[in-house]
Automatic annotation (TrEMBL):
PANTHER family: GCN5-RELATED N-ACETYLTRANSFERASE, N-ACETYLTRANSFERASE DOMAIN-CONTAINING PROTEIN. This is GNAT superfamily acetyltransferase. It comes from Streptosporangium brasiliense. SUPFAM superfamilies: Acyl-CoA N-acyltransferases (Nat) (SSF55729). InterPro entries: Acyl_CoA_acyltransferase, GNAT_N_AcTrfase_prd.
């Protein structure tokens, strides 16, 4: 973490953020550092091609764009396992008045899953941002990918803020396939009590409570089953592995996209708050009280 140059007056929370990032990286067994050379950024491009299986014709990002971002002061980092690049993350700044960083892509090789490499990258990004006076990081994720929903909402304690239908349009890769690219925008308030606890290894744990209504569940055949969404607390289920479902049954995957858009999307438009995500695959959503 020697590359996290302390370029503003440190505070207790910034010191804690740096210490947490260093501890998680050690536990994950990776070295995380900022990247800016053309060769390093080209390695990031190749890594993302492997993760999203895009091929050279449509990479998620190009090395020259990353190079421009680093020159402009944006964030690009890599996670190294015994010298091999196994994960990377980059983001760029929002308008100055926002005091926020938009984290566009973070990815880790599949064989590294379970070692908290993605967690280490996000904590490094958080410490880097806080050292520069940034109080919030935003990013988007596919609400149908269960492990990402848990990671963002529970493990990091980021808060879903907006549902974005078909946000990126068609993406030519083997992850999204022909599915619409609906995304949820999350806001990670870096010094909130929930975020501080999560970064210290205490994920956000949420219980639905009595009286919760099941608005969307998984049928025995793997498809979506609509229920009630009129209770104070609403539960929205997602499939176990939407990426595998896109390969085996694209029509069923498309049904899930529409169902989650209709339920979760509408609730967020109405002002409902996603309070948590249960590890077994449920969004826990609280509706606004009628005035």
């Amino acid at each position: 973490m020697t590359d996290l140059i302390r370029d503003r007056r440190e505070s207790r929370s910034v010191d804690a953020a740096c210490a947490a990032a260093e501890a998680v990286a050690r536990t994950a067994g990776v070295d995380i550092r900022l990247l800016d050379s053309v060769s390093e950024l080209e390695a990031v491009r190749r890594l993302y091609e492997r993760i999203w299986r895009t091929g050279e014709s449509s990479p998620p990002v190009t090395a020259d764009l990353l190079r421009a971002m680093t020159k402009a002061g944006s964030y690009v980092s890599g996670a190294f396992d015994e010298g091999e690049l196994v994960g990377a993350c980059f983001g760029f700044f929002s308008p100055p008045a926002r005091g926020a960083l938009h984290s566009h892509i973070a990815g880790v090789l599949a064989r590294m899953q379970g070692r908290n490499v993605g967690f280490a990258l996000k904590l490094h990004q958080r410490a880097w941002a806080m050292l520069r006076g940034v109080s919030e990081i935003c990013w988007t994720y596919d609400p149908l990918i269960r492990r990402n929903a848990y990671f963002n909402i529970a493990k990091l304690a980021a808060d879903p803020a907006e549902y974005l239908p078909n946000f990126y349009g068609p993406i030519d890769d083997d992850i999204n396939r022909s599915d619409d690219t609906d995304r949820v925008l999350v806001r990670w308030r870096l010094e909130s009590p929930d975020a501080e606890a999560a970064c210290a290894g205490r994920p956000r744990v949420t219980e639905a409570g009595a009286g919760a209504a099941v608005a969307l569940s998984v049928s025995a055949g793997g498809g979506p089953v609509a229920g009630r969404a009129d209770a104070r607390t609403v539960l929205i289920g997602v499939p176990d592995d939407i990426e595998a479902l896109r390969e085996s049954d694209p029509a069923c995957a498309a049904e899930w996209r529409k169902a989650v858009r209709d339920v979760l999307g509408e609730l967020l438009v109405e002002g409902a708050r996603v309070r948590g995500f249960d590890r077994t695959g449920w969004y826990i959503v609280d509706r606004q009280e009628a005035e």
